[in-house]
Specification:
Elements (H helix, E strand, L loop, with lengths): L13 H6 L3 E3 L1 H6 L4 E6 L5 H10 L5 E3 L3 H8 L6 E5 L2 H10 L6 H7 L10 E5 L5 E5 L8 H4 L18 H4 L15
Parallel strand pairs: 2-3
Antiparallel strand pairs: 1-4, 2-4, 5-6
């Protein structure tokens, strides 16, 4: 017998992820579920531009790159998907622990990031009294909040709610017009 323990594939845990609804499919779903997200799995056939975008969008979550999109279809039953996420759970922690060797490391992540383009101030032509035209960079404008512009202020008295007489809002959420509670019979 060998001293090395028997290594079982991580794929054995994937049906349980489907059963617990712990799989998040698609980029938009992942973006909206960042608080519930444990890690992101991307395929090897993802384009470099899309990989940069995923790494940039989910830099506070681990990103694992393994499998092909055909493998995701076979394992999870999702067609044409190249990005999936796993919700926070003990099961996701176990899966991530086994897929950790395929993680995109922070050093590689820095190389994938695209630096922002430098911002250049537009030039303004100004005519001088001697007749020559000089180009000066225009000063960038400071952002003005909507409140400073006069939009979005409080218009109603705070803490007050308009109530119509006889409406269900004045009786409370669980009262019937006759005074009995919902669901109770006498």
């Amino acid at each position: 017998m060998s001293d090395e323990p028997l290594k079982r594939p991580v794929e054995r845990l994937f049906p349980f992820v489907l059963r617990t609804r712990g799989l998040l499919v698609g980029r938009e779903t992942l973006r909206h579920s960042r608080g519930r997200l444990h890690f992101v799995l991307v395929t090897k056939d993802l384009t470099p531009g899309s990989l940069r975008e995923i790494v940039r969008d989910f830099e506070d979550h681990p990103v694992v790159q393994c499998y092909e999109s055909a493998d995701l279809e076979r394992l999870f039953g999702v067609k044409g998907t190249k990005v999936v996420g796993f919700k926070k759970s003990g099961l996701s922690q176990s899966i991530y622990a086994e897929l950790k060797e395929f993680r995109i490391e922070p050093g590689v992540r820095r190389q994938l990031r695209v630096p922002p383009a430098p911002v250049r101030a537009p030039e303004v032509k100004r005519e001088q009294p001697d007749g020559e035209t000089h180009r000066e960079p225009e000063m960038p404008r400071t952002p003005v909040s909507p409140r400073e512009r006069g939009f979005g202020g409080a218009t109603a008295t705070p803490g007050r709610r308009a109530r119509a007489s006889g409406s269900s809002a004045s009786r409370g959420p669980d009262r019937r017009p006759g005074g009995s509670r919902l669901g109770r019979t006498r």
